[in-house]
C-alpha cells in the first residue's frame, strides 16, 4: 500500500481507503463489517471514512465497536456532519457543530477525529459561523483537521477568504472515469490552496468493476439488487453505460489489471487525489481494490479509456 499526504495537513493516508456509506450498520452485518475492517488493516489501509448520517449513527457505532481495541494512532478516522439526524438536527450551525461532534465522538469511542468534514454546504447558516465553530472544535482538540464534501468552487473560495479560521485540507467529491466534473474547477482551486481530494464512488457504485452485463439482470447479492444499498447506482445501470464499461475491459487487461483496479488507478493518476474510498461487504473485495495502489499504467491506456467513455453524462 502506498500513502499520500493529505493537503496541508500532517496526515499520510492510504491511497485506497475504506468507506462505510450504505454498508456498515445499514446493509452489512456487524460481523462482516468487522471482518472487512480487519482485512483493511492487514492490507495497509489506514484511512477510515464515515459520517454521522450513515444509518443515523449506526455506521459510527459499528466502527467505534470494531476499532475500540486498536491503538488510536494506528489509523486515520474521518467523519462528517450536515445531513439530518432528526427532525430538528441538521446543518452546519454553531450549535450543530458542537452537538454533532460530541455525538460522533461518543459513538466512535474516541476523544478526537483526525478529519471532520462538512457533508454538504449549508445555505441556511452564515459561512463565517460554520468556520468559526469548526475552528473552535479543532482548537479544543476534538478534531485535528477539517474538510468539505461536494462544495461548489464559489463556496470553497469563500471559505478560503475568511481570516483567522482553520483551513480546510480535504475535499470529498464524486470522481471516476464516468464522473469527471471536479477536474473543471474544484481540483485546480484545491491544488492551489493545500487541499487534497478524497474521492467517493471511484468505481461508480461498482459499475466500473465490469460485473454488470448490459444484457442480463444484475447478479444476486450485488449492490444493484439491494434495497438498502442500491439507490445510488441507478444512473450507471443504463444499457449504453454498461455497454461502454464492458469495452473498457480489454484496455484494463492490456495494463495487466482488472477493470476495477484500472479504474482506481485512473483516479489515483491525479496528483491532487490523496485517496480513493471503496466500500466492501466482503474482505476479498478489499484485496482486489488494494492492488490498485502503486499500479504503474501507460498514460496512453488511460487516454484510450477516457476517449471510450467520453460523451456519457458526467464523463467529459
CATH superfamily annotation: NADP-dependent oxidoreductase domain
Overall form: globular
Unreliably modeled segments: none
Adjacency order of strands in the biggest sheet: 3-4-5-6-7-8-9-10
How does this structure look, described?
This protein is of the alpha/beta class. It has one domain: Alpha-Beta Barrel (TIM Barrel), CATH 3.20.20. The chain contains ten helices and ten strands. It has helices spanning 30-42, 58-67, 94-108, 127-139, 153-160, 186-191, 239-254, 259-268, 283-290, 299-309; strands at 3-5, 12-14, 16-19, 47-49, 76-81, 113-118, 143-148, 168-171, 196-199, 273-278. The strands form two sheets. Strands 3-4-5-6-7-8-9-10 form an eight-stranded parallel β-barrel, surrounded by four helices. The longest helix has 16 residues, at 239-254. The protein is globular and about 50 Å long. It starts with a strand and ends in a 7-residue tail after the last helix.
Amino acid at each position: 500500500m502506498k500513502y499520500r499526504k493529505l493537503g496541508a495537513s500532517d496526515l499520510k493516508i492510504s491511497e485506497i481507503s475504506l468507506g462505510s456509506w450504505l454498508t456498515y450498520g445499514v446493509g452489512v452485518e456487524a460481523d462482516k463489517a468487522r471482518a472487512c475492517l480487519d482485512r483493511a488493516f492487514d492490507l495497509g489501509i489506514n484511512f477510515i471514512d464515515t459520517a454521522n448520517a450513515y444509518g443515523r449513527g449506526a455506521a459510527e457505532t459499528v466502527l467505534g465497536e470494531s476499532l475500540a481495541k486498536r491503538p488510536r494512532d494506528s489509523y486515520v478516522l474521518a467523519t462528517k456532519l450536515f445531513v439530518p439526524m432528526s427532525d430538528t438536527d441538521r446543518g452546519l450551525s454553531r450549535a450543530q457543530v458542537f452537538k454533532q461532534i460530541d455525538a460522533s465522538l461518543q459513538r466512535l469511542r474516541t476523544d478526537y477525529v483526525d478529519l471532520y468534514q462538512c457533508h454538504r454546504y449549508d445555505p441556511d447558516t452564515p459561512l463565517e459561523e460554520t468556520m468559526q465553530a469548526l475552528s473552535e472544535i479543532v482548537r479544543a482538540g476534538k478534531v485535528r483537521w477539517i474538510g468539505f464534501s461536494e462544495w461548489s468552487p464559489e463556496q470553497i473560495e469563500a471559505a478560503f477568504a475568511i481570516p483567522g479560521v482553520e483551513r480546510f485540507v480535504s475535499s470529498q467529491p464524486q470522481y471516476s472515469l464516468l464522473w469527471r466534473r471536479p477536474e473543471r474547477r474544484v481540483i485546480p482551486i484545491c491544488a492551489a490552496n493545500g487541499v487534497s481530494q478524497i474521492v467517493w464512488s471511484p468505481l461508480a457504485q461498482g459499475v466500473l468493476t465490469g460485473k454488470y452485463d448490459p444484457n442480463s439482470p444484475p447478479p444476486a447479492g450485488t449492490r444493484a439488487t439491494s434495497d438498502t444499498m442500491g439507490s445510488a447506482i441507478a444512473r450507471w445501470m443504463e444499457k449504453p453505460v454498461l455497454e461502454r464499461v464492458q469495452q473498457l475491459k480489454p484496455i484494463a487487461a492490456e495494463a495487466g489489471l482488472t477493470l476495477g483496479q484500472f479504474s482506481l488507478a485512473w483516479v489515483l493518476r491525479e496528483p491532487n487525489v490523496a485517496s480513493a474510498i471503496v466500500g466492501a461487504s466482503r474482505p476479498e473485495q478489499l484485496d482486489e481494490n488494494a492492488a490498485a495502489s502503486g499500479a504503474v499504467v501507460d498514460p496512453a491506456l488511460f487516454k484510450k479509456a477516457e476517449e471510450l467513455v467520453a460523451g456519457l453524462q458526467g464523463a467529459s
